[in-house]
Amino acid sequence: MNSYAVTEKNSRGRAIAEPKSPLRNDFQRDRDRIIHSAAFRRLMYKTQVFVNHEGDMFRTRLSHSLEVAQISRGISRSMDINEDLAETIALAHDLGHTPFGHAGQDALNQCMKNYGGFEHNLQSLRVVDLLEKRYANFDGLNLTFESREGILKHCSLKNARLLGELGQRFIDKKQTSLEAQVVDLSDAIAYNMHDLDDGYRSNILDLDSLNEIEFFSECHDKVVSSGLIKDEQIVVNETIRLMTYRLIDDVTKASLELIKANKICDISDVRNFGKNLVQFSEPFDRKLKACQKKLRANLYHHNRIEMMSKKAHSVIESLFNYYINKMEQVPDNYLIANNNQRSIADYIAGMTDRFALKIYEKIEK
């Protein structure tokens, strides 16, 4: 493993010391704790773009997290850095997401605007640090510092000051580990590529509109030029597969070149570098941004998605207002002394789409 990778030797360890596992390294142990958590299982029924009941073929938060983990491991392996840590961060990065995707997060943030707000990265950290109740000796999962650091991609200075050592990098303007940086870009690769696929499967995006994206068109022409594929769905599949491969190949090569050019030798060099070292080359950065622009215009703001988003806002707002007046309905393990609003936000954020809709329909009768 390269000298600038995170290892057990340079890890800052766990908040609560535990004996080492004889069977797994610390980061594999973190990964296993995440996989066995209730929050991870609930991702199966949480929206990525399409609400869970829209169809069985669309991505959920769970399938998205698995795709991010797979891409993260591949890039980390090619860069010879810590695959286990990258996989762990990827699997945990969306644990704090609300039901109904970003619309649900926006709605809950609006409900919480006078009570500290709501942000899913911070919520993911709350899940692994506090909300999971599985172990006798501590709340949460007691993950390593590096896993927790990678989960917390963004943080305001106000919140960072409340997080001690974990928040210090935002105050000091330091960088996170390469493994966390890999997950960040793997997330972008995964959601852009699978949203193109889900957009096509939903019939919101057709082949002509996909070919308006220059990067898609380049790869589509390459696939079609083989003359071997006649089925349009398979052509689209192969095109997105080629796009994914080229993005992964580019970010791996560009990042290794940047690391070499800046003589990065160890983890302190990574943290003290003025910007992320895991980056796309400029041409591929432009290609991915063009995909994002197309998805925003033609998928995320499509009437069908907008209608789901409006329903999500109504559901989250109704649930929040209901529990404000019915605190006795909030399970005891979510209750925080003298902070009813945060207790409710924790409870609602942990709901699946279908459970939130079930409660909403019950209280609206």
Q: Give the number of DSSP strands.
A: 0
Number of helices: 18
- Alpha-beta classification: mainly alpha
Number of domain units:
1
Radius of gyration: 21 Å
What best-fitting shape do the alpha-carbon axes yield?
A: globular
Q: What would the CATH topology be?
A: Hypothetical protein af1432
CATH architectural arrangement? Orthogonal Bundle
CATH class: Mainly Alpha
Element pattern in H and E? HHHHHHHHHHHHHHHHHH
Percent range for β-strand residues: under 5%
| CATH H level, superfamily name | Hypothetical protein af1432
Distance between the termini: 59 Å
What share of the residues lie within helices? 55-70%
Profile the largest sheet.
none
Q: If you average the pLDDT, what whole number results?
A: 92
Low-confidence stretches: none
Topology:
Elements: H1 26-35, H2 38-42, H3 61-79, H4 83-92, H5 101-111, H6 120-131, H7 145-151, H8 157-160, H9 168-172, H10 178-201, H11 207-210, H12 214-224, H13 232-261, H14 267-272, H15 282-300, H16 303-325, H17 340-349, H18 353-363
Helix pairs in contact: 1-4, 3-4, 3-10, 3-13, 4-7, 4-10, 5-16, 7-10, 10-13, 10-15, 12-13, 16-17, 16-18
